[in-house]
Amino acid sequence: MSQMPSHILAWKKSSEVVRMEQIPVGDPRRTVQGFEADPLFHGPAPRIDYDDPYEQDEDRLKKVTRYWAARDVEREQRTRRYDELLAAEMQASIQRREAEQAAKEGMAGPSGKEKEAPKTPRRTPRKAANVPPSDSEEEKEDGDEAPPSCVECLRKRIACVPQPGKKRSCMACYKRKIRCDFLDKTAWAVLEGSRRMAESVRELAGMEKRREYFRLELKWYELQRYSFNLQRTGELDAAAADFRLLQMLHLKGQGLDIPEDLEERFRTERLNIKMRVRERVEAVEQNMDEVRREAAFRIPSGESADSQTPYVKRKANEEEETEGEIEARAVRTKRRKVFSDEE
């Protein structure tokens, strides 16, 4: 066992000992690359110079290993010193307590009085659980306590008003000339527990209903945002189609020969984009209508779930179209399909 250094022996109390934590072997601070000196250890730290061509990795590893070996030795010495001081303090405390106890017994000895045993408190017998109190016992109870309802008043859901001077008989049972029976505490506890359980179930059902409502509302708003994005994208594509059509007309005005099918495609491109966007928007609005009918909530404009949506209004307007408009729309759709097949 190595001898302790003087700065460790200078500590005379366990509270003065500066203890050091245990650093495991795999800690990065014990390696060469991540070396970090312990501030509590005052030994010389190794100087690692990576620019020195004569210093190899093995030399640096030896320096770090010697440093941590010396640090672990001092940690063990400090721990041993702390354990010795703590054991000495505990032994001194025990001896001091025994001396004080002996001094107290020595002072009480000459008087000749024996030490009295501590008195145990008397235990009062408990009352029976389900025994109804008598009239004399009820008179001793506080008058501020609200009387419980009898079985008949509880069944008819009316206020149970006790007779003056008699708490175990109510006015309603006295007028009907029937026996006034009261439930014991166990039955009241069961009724109260059932009531609270029913309230909890209703509250949970309401929370589930609100959660489903908010989920559908969030889905409706997401569909609405998707519909807005579709319309905005369609407007941008239509503007690009108009620009290409103007360029085509400009080149045609300069005398450039443009095929008829290409010219017709440029002229109908905007219509095709509008019809394609309209179909997608109608599909999204149809899903929005289904969500609204399922959730039955009001939209931000204040309309209820039973009001007509844009999709329903558009369908109603299409039904009122004349035969000529229907034929023209069918021709446009057919032309659009022909161009899409050619592409």
Written account of the structure:
The chain has 343 residues and is mainly α. It folds into three domains: 88 residues, no CATH class; 38 residues; 144 residues, no CATH class. The chain is 61% helix and 2% strand. It has a two-stranded antiparallel ribbon with strand order 1-2. A hairpin with a 2-residue loop joins strand 1 and strand 2. The chain is flat, with a radius of gyration of 48 Å. The relative contact order is 0.04. The C terminus is likely disordered. This is Zn(2)-C6 fungal-type domain-containing protein. It comes from Sphaerobolus stellatus (strain SS14).
Largest sheet: 2 strands, antiparallel
The share of residues in helices is 55-70%
How large is the share of residues in beta strands? under 5%
Order of helices and strands: HHHHEEHHHHH
Report low-confidence residues grouped into runs of 5 or more: 128-132, 138-145, 337-343
Oligomer: single chain
Q: Per the principal axes of the C-alpha atoms, what is the gross shape?
A: flat
The overall pLDDT average reads 76
* Overall SS class: mainly alpha
Q: What would you report as the Rg, rounded to the nearest angstrom? A: 48 Å
How many structural domains are formed by the residues?
A: 3
N- to C-terminal distance: 93 Å
Instruction: Say how many strands there are.
Output: 2
Number of helices: 9
Largest sheet, order of strands side by side? 1-2
Region (Disordered): 29-56, 95-147, 298-328
Biased composition (Acidic residues): 135-145
Protein name: Zn(2)-C6 fungal-type domain-containing protein
